[in-house]
Amino acid sequence: MTEISSGPAFPRSRRFLLPLAAIALVIASGLARSPWERDLDAAQRAAGFHPARLGLGLRERLGQAGFLAALGGFRAPLADLLVIQAYGAWERVEWGRMNALFQTATALQPRAPHLWEMASWQMAYNAARNAREDVRRQPRELLRVRAEREYLALARDFLERGLANNPRSPLLWESLGRLQLDKLRDPLAASAAYARGADLPGAPAYLKRFAAYALSRAPGREREAHSLLRQIYDLGPQEHLPTLLKELRRLENHLDLPFSERIPPAL
Amino acid sequence: MSSPARVAAIASNTLLGLAREKVFWFLLVFALLLIGSSVVLVRFSFQDQFQMLKDVSLGAMSVFSSLLAVLATASLLPRDLEERTLYSLLAKPVGRGEYLLGKFLGVALLLALALALMGALFFALLLVRGQAVEAETARDLAALAPDALAAKLAELRAVVRDPNLLAAGALILVKSCVLAAATLCLSTFATSNLFTVMLAAAVWLIGHLQGAAREYWQGGGEIIGAWTKLTLAATAVVFPDFQLFNLVDEIAAGAPVPIALLARTLGLGAFYVVIYLLAAHFVFLRKEL
């Protein structure tokens, strides 16, 4: 019978060594690559990858199949699926379930700013509002107010955790500013959030204006707000937007500024 | 015929043979359907316009390329043995190493082609959706200040034409090539196609947990016992760390991949492939045919 090619270096008598060589190769290379893998893992984490820790808590919330899917590269679609379920919970006015679904979705995809923003928006603008106004569900106003505050606190928590994971997201800073201004009635904190967002690369130009508008609502900070708005105004005619002009004129009147310091009157 | 030419001939024959298999076309059609369906799924979601499209498409590419890698590779050796093509091939001046390398390259080409098809559909959907959303945004936000509108449109364009998506494709390809190389290694000593598929599925699963095993092995300290530590060390040493290639979720969420980091990750993938192919070669050299 013809000998089938096996390479000249390994005669039959020594072939038993080959599987041992294969095992030795895998072990030796494994030991050699281990520090490489560790360093690469650290570098990837430092660059913002692998933020989700697939621990036991998440395993319990996702179930076995979901956990396996999350392990194998279906983490983002799984988070999307949970968001669609949260959408259903919203339609059925199940705020607790919606919160739980968003908590899991954001745990799966902490580097997706829009998930944090969406979760926060749902809590602040739907759950909180409904908790405050739904008299049939809770006739006692005190408890309704308390529920509203809890949902607003959840909304802020979503944004703060989102920012801890995505500190360079203008979207989240903008959302925090809006939440502070519209719902938590803290124009100073809102202005600070807008200003943080405005300083980031890729931030929309209007955030700088929003920071000044919010500051103009903070009692005692009108002069500072005027100064900021005036700086924007002085950038050129492209910045002479109706809201900016209106706000500047309101502050000029409020601060009773001399005409020399005022902007030209509207024609 | 030179050695590279022999390897290339085996690779092209392998690719043609695999392309004739109906199961791979079914898998590909399912993947393409899933990617296509993400356009419909977007309408169920009230989140970012492109996020679900990216998440589902990249997820489908990742999962289906892994499935393809295992199923295509596991059937190679058993089929060649069953059809006796292996005997006629190795009776010619073709080394066993050349045979294995050719087979692997054939699978790698199949994976690259499948990913190219899925990627082309994904990018086409992204571009079409991008243009529609851009037009909608410009119409809906016409009352917005010009700079705000321009910022929104620029943001949209950046999301659609994100070069990091190419990096995601490269990572998915390398991950599936590593899985194919490990499966080829397993198939050199496994006794049946089914057994190889089951072992490869175990490698896939353990490979995704390898990072945790390595972390506990190297940093567990006194908390874990000696046997546990040995088991963890064996896991970390033998199996590849597939989580290192799972950067796709963050890329879909908009995270940029530094070139150096991408190169290091792809380099590790190439290292895994070389080691598993060499191990496969050693075992295959001993195999009695």
Nutshell version of this structure?
Chain A is an all-alpha fold and 267 residues long. Chain A has eleven helices and no strands. Chain A is flat, with a radius of gyration of 29 Å.
Q: How much helical structure, as a percent, in the residues of chain A?
A: 55-70%
- Catalogue the unreliable spans of chain B: none
Termini Cα gap of chain A: 105 Å
Distance linking N and C termini of chain B: 24 Å
* Radius of gyration over C-alpha positions of chain B, nearest whole angstrom: 22 Å
Count of structural domains of chain B: 1
The number of helical elements of chain A comes to 11
The helix count of chain B comes to 12
Number of separate strands of chain A: 0
- Give the percentage of residues in beta strands of chain B: under 5%
Largest sheet of chain A: none
The residue-averaged pLDDT of chain A reads 87
Order of helices and strands of chain B: HHHHHHHHHHHH
Shape of chain B: globular
Based on the structure, what is the oligomeric state of the protein chains? heterodimer
Sequence of secondary-structure elements of chain A: HHHHHHHHHHH
Let me know the number of strands of chain B.
0
Q: What's the structural blueprint in terms of helices and strands?
A:
The complex is a heterodimer of chains A (267) and B (289).
Chain A: H1 17-46, H2 56-71, H3 75-91, H4 95-108, H5 113-133, H6 141-165, H7 170-182, H8 187-198, H9 206-216, H10 222-233, H11 242-255
Helix pairs in contact in A: 3-4, 4-5, 5-6, 5-7, 6-7, 7-8, 8-9, 9-10, 10-11
Chain B: H1 3-19, H2 22-44, H3 51-74, H4 76-82, H5 85-91, H6 96-140, H7 146-160, H8 164-187, H9 193-219, H10 226-238, H11 248-252, H12 259-286
Helix pairs in contact in B: 1-6, 2-3, 2-6, 3-6, 3-8, 3-9, 6-7, 6-8, 6-12, 8-9, 8-12, 9-10
Label this structure with key terms.
heterodimer; A: 267 residues; mainly alpha; 69% helix; flat; B: 289 residues
